[in-house]
Structure of Glutamyl-tRNA(Gln) amidotransferase subunit A:
Amino acid sequence: MTMSHPIHTEFAGIAALREALRARRLSAEEVARSALEAAQARHATLNAFVQIDPELTLQQARAADAALADGSAGPLAGIPIAHKDLFVTQGWRTTAASNMLKDYVSPFDATVVARLRGAGAVSLGKLNCDEFAMGSANENTIFGAVRNPWDTAAVAGGSSGGSAAAVAARNVLATTGTDTGGSIRQPASFCGVSGIKPTYGTVSRFGMIAYGSSLDQGGPLARHARDLVEMLDVMSGFDPADATSVPSCNGTRNESGRVRDAFEAALATQQTQGERPLTGLRIGVPREFFGAGLADDVRAAVQAALAQFESLGATLVDISLPRTELSIPAYYVIAPAEASSNLSRYDGVRYGHRAAEFGDLNDMIARSRAEGFGAEVQRRILIGAYVLSHGYYDAYYLQAQRLRRLIAQDFQQAFAGQCDVIMGPVAPTVARNLGDNQNDPTADWLADIYTLGVNLAGLPGMSIPCGFGQGDHARRPVGLHLIGNYFDEGRLLAIADCYQHATDWHTHTPELA
């Protein structure tokens, strides 16, 4: 028996629903109740949510209705969203999908959560993720794997798999995610939704549980680029509580309005160019992204998308990012090193799970960490501790940081004289089957080859739907990877929006009971 679709799915996106809410054609509470019903009904199928608390959600919906009634409503008043379980939130537990934090309830909101709540967004709850954001399939979680709404035998991607699945299943209009090495873009690709990782430092990391501090960046997932604009414009902005937050973006203040203004300026330029709105746009196509490791069905979908961009007036330019393969060893030295430092605070003394039985203090810490952390987290902590240890720091960590600088320089050389934006696949294949790599814990690391360099360089990148696989994978989506120069989120989103006006991949919806 098929359940009725939630009310918000009757609208094209956030802007259309906002208009209906402000016209009082429906209430935020009605929207929230229908979204809650859908999320709860689909929980057993997808496992996207880790906590739903209807009373907390309805409190926010009633507050949104009150603001709509008195004219004080923010730009997202009444819009149903949900948060990755890596953002601390008042009221809901924040577990990072780990036994180490399974009962933690934060006394404060992360800055991202506070900004979205201040704009009136109504949260349905917390979303499943890989433990401490460490994974590419959303299988490393105490709550069980997230299943892909398009094919429940497939992974949803990670670490923001719950965020992507909730949008794909139309439980909410948008979600928050985090991206350390592709953890917004890859699940967005696998689940057929849109997601953007903004330039490092433009979205506050305060209250976002840390994995790799120089790599982590929060961002939104939604059906299409216009909804990403609505979310990112609220989420981004300078935060004095975050030491990595940037106050200025190429001379423009990092505040609400920056992304929207840049998006609308790019749209205005496109509209002056008639039927070929992207005339003059140079798209760099890295030859390293189309090598032997790329699956034929992904290659076909991405090449068809690039041909569509050509028909819209863009020019394709062959470029090289020669250190693409080296991004994997560089990332898997730097990220575990930072993780080993960040996660050292969870020792059972001050933070996190404490073992029930132990001998002395050292035994208590060892037992607490062994019980609290899952296998993948332990693996990365051990790698990180090793590469930072005496005698290995220079050989591994320092060399990885030098390589990171060279990878960033490769991107800058491409942007300096060859292209305005870079495009290619997000991942070498469509979503794999659940459980496929259980006997090879590092196999998923290789699938991050196209996304890692963007994080190492701190650039903005996004994924938009551009097709499906073939044969047995004909129901598994393919994402197109768009990479921009620093602080170029508005133009990236406008380019994506132009493509989504010319195609309908983002409108496809999985069949769910």
Remarks:
- Residues 393-417 form the longest helix (25 residues).
- The mean pLDDT is 96.
- Residues 7-328+396-507 form a domain with the Amidase signature (AS) enzymes fold (CATH 3.90.1300.10).
- The first strand starts at residue 49 and ends at 52.
